[in-house]
Amino acid sequence: MYRFSANLGLLWNELTQVEAIYKAKENGFDAVEFQFPYEHDAKDIKKALDEVQLPVMGINTVKGNIEKGDNGLLAVPSKISQAKDAIIQAFEYAKIIKAKNIHAMAGITDLSTKSLVTFIDNLKFAKELINGSGINLVIEPLNLNDNPGYFLTKVEQAKEICELVGPDSLKIMFDFYHVQINQGNVLKRFKDHLSYIGHVQIASVQDRAEPDKGELDFSYIIPEIFKIGYKDIIGAEYKPRTSTDTGLVWMQKFK
């Protein structure tokens, strides 16, 4: 009944992305998703995906210059050119691997009108670029403990941005880990924003490990979000406590 996507930015990260695709298939995942796969040739990724017949739920736009503190580019007024390049890069890669979503990373900037307008303009640029491709755009509120200074931090803020850009083409990536840390009351927020949600991710709170303990009880939450009306794949985006293989016991409870 429940289907899960392995986020290969965090799972099996001791392997290459191509090797990790095969591991995801072997371990019963129904899809994969990537964070930043760009160092790998997209055609090699696509070949492995075709062999195992796993869909791709999404990829992120690049963070930018990590050494200088970048954590996304699209809402940063001084980096409009770099943001557009990141959007084009993600779109070209997503076309080859047939990714369902592109996560447009906002970045670190102040909560000014200028930053908001920059984010909206860049999202509209992305919207026009992907129009007719079958690829969707998502934005994700991130928690401020792990991502200090990040522009997009609340589900309600993300909803407003979706409405300004066009909710037909822009959705929210609802990561229970981030939402719980920043805001809490996760199931009510999920229900209130269901029509805006394009993808779901899970991890334990506070350690961002396997979703089997901590502040959130996913054995309750996952059935509940399906009762609420979500029927799509759930992204497993967590940092294994030991090895990825050892920690996968959690998923068997839902299969």
Describe this structure in words.
- The structure is a single chain.
- By secondary structure, this protein is an alpha/beta fold.
- It has a single domain, classed as Divalent-metal-dependent TIM barrel enzymes (TIM Barrel), CATH 3.20.20.
- The chain has 10 helices and 8 strands.
- It has helices spanning 17-26, 42-52, 80-97, 113-130, 155-165, 176-182, 186-192, 218-228, 244-247, 249-252; strands at residues 4-7, 31-33, 56-60, 99-103, 136-139, 170-175, 197-202, 234-236.
- The chain has an 8-stranded parallel β-sheet.
- Strand 1, helix 1 and strand 2 (31-33) form a beta-alpha-beta unit.
- Helix 2 (42-52) runs parallel beside helix 3 and helix 3 (80-97) runs parallel beside helix 4 (113-130).
- The longest helix has 18 residues, at 80-97.
